[in-house]
Design goal:
This protein is mainly alpha-helical. The chain is built from 16 helices and six strands. The N terminus is likely disordered.
Length: 314
């Protein structure tokens, strides 16, 4: 999940309406029945192949891509105000990345097989998991991925067309946010965004998704770059976190901007820190099944944080 800071420095928290109005989503409980939906990529390529120097790029994208949007793409559009004009500008600015989409789509069946295999492993870790669809879409080169009431929404053009491992990591991460919402209950999950002094809540929420993804399901923490960046300066960052937590200065830990390449600041170090806290808590518990329930429920984040015993050491 991306936390985005707008140019006017107002924190925009997306996902405040995730799953609202759905008490019991009717999604499959068996991973083999899960869907990886690529219809929007197919529509994009139909539009893309018609683009020429003389063509009306915006009209072609609107007619062949946006007008045929899946429910997942429609949800993404409503959240991020994606439109044909923005997409046209991104295609012009990053042509190489959009050219890769054809090769990615040609391997869609292989991608789907790999996706289902990840969900089978996911079911072994979380037997009660529910599997909403994952929508792979084409957007304006921001690399946004989020859970929603319709399933996971993942834009592929920035970093996934030639990196299947990164795509799998993101699919599992966003699926875990869905399980958190189901475990906590919708009101508590969404309410955490408007809760006062919620920095620790958000860090542990993201840390839980990363821990389940990289440690328990995919077993590849070496691919978790935010963790390696955090561990490279762990004690100093731990001290910074202690000070920032008191003042609720969450920007360094949770936010990312797109218009200035984050000014050279390492992105979202709270994800790595949250992983470490959740890992420490999980390792201390004898009953691992109960530990998983605890970190998904996050009934009392302060207590979980304290019980972890994590003090910024490897």
């Amino acid at each position: 999940m991306k936390w985005i800071k707008s140019p006017n420095s107002v924190l925009i928290l997306f996902l405040t309406t995730i799953l609202q109005g759905i008490a019991q989503p009717n999604y499959p409980l068996q991973p083999e029945q899960a869907q990886l939906i690529t219809s929007d990529i197919k529509n994009f390529l139909e539009a893309y192949e018609q683009l020429t120097i003389e063509s009306d790029t915006i009209q072609i994208l609107q007619t062949h891509y946006f007008d045929g949007a899946s429910v997942g793409l429609k949800e993404y559009i409503s959240r991020f105000s994606l439109n044909a004009n923005d997409l046209s500008k991104s295609i012009a600015k990053f042509p190489d990345d959009y050219q890769k989409i054809r090769s990615f789509y040609n391997e869609a069946e292989t991608t789907k097989i790999g996706y289902i295999n990840e969900l089978i492993r996911y079911k072994e870790v979380l037997p009660q998991a529910m599997f909403p669809p994952t929508y792979l879409i084409v957007a304006d080169h921001k690399g946004i991925a989020q859970a929603s009431k319709y399933g996971q929404l993942i834009s592929i053009e920035l970093k996934y067309t030639d990196n299947s491992e990164a795509l799998k990591n993101t699919c599992v991460h966003e699926l875990t946010h869905f399980q958190q919402a189901m475990t906590m209950g919708i009101q508590k999950y969404t309410g955490m965004y408007s809760k006062e002094n919620n920095m620790l809540d958000m860090i542990l929420r993201e840390g839980t998704a990363e821990f389940i993804t990289y440690k328990l399901v995919r077993k590849n923490p070496e691919q978790f770059k935010k963790l390696s960046h955090y561990e490279a300066d762990e004690m100093n960052l731990w001290k910074k976190f202690q000070a920032d937590l008191k003042s609720q200065a969450s920007d360094y830990w949770l936010n990312v901007t797109y218009d200035d390449n984050n000014k050279g600041v390492p992105i979202q170090m709270g994800y790595g820190l949250g992983y470490k806290i959740v890992e420490a808590y999980y390792n201390k518990q004898e009953d691992k099944n109960q530990a998983l329930k605890d970190i998904l429920m996050m009934e009392d984040v302060t207590s979980l944080y304290q019980q972890s015993g994590y003090q910024g050491s490897n």
